[in-house]
Amino acid sequence: QVQLVESGGGLVQAGGSLTLSCAASGLTFSSYAMAWFRQAPGKEREVVSIIGSDGSTWYAESVKGRFTISRDNAKKTVYLQMNSLKPEDTAVYYCAGRRTLRYDVWGQGTQVTVSS
Question: Are 33 and 51 in contact (CB under 8 A)?
């Protein structure tokens, strides 16, 4: 059974930090590109950061310099370290994986709330 399970969300004050984790099972994790998406209330889902199977990374401009994505293939886990959090980072964060062009494996999401 292919599964992604996020954890690490919560309530934090502006300027604070959180680290999200996404544990994978049932898939060849090392061959997947992994991404973090987020969806704020009333807004469309947006991609936050991507890490390729080769370890290459990409960040949305809104989080560049504040967020860091990483992966541990031995633990089948992808992380998102979030620093200097802002109220506009408040959203449900999802991890997703793909081997082809489409992200076809999704987690259930974890809520991140940043208070001002």
Answer: yes
Return all residues near 41 (Cβ < 8 A) that are at least 6 apart.
none
DSSP letters for 39-98: E-TTS--EEEEEE-TTS-EEE-TTTTTTEEEEEETTTTEEEEEE-S--GGG-EEEEEEEE
**What digits encode the pLDDT tens for the residues 33-81?**
999 999 999 999 999 999 999 999 999 999 999 999 999 999 999 999 9
d(CA 87, CA 78): 24
Contact 79, 21 (CB under 8 A): yes
Tell me which DSSP letter residue 15 carries: T
Query: What does the alpha-carbon distance between residue 100 and residue 6 come to, in Å, rounded to a whole number?
Result: 22
Collapsed DSSP state (helix, strand, coil) of residue 2: coil
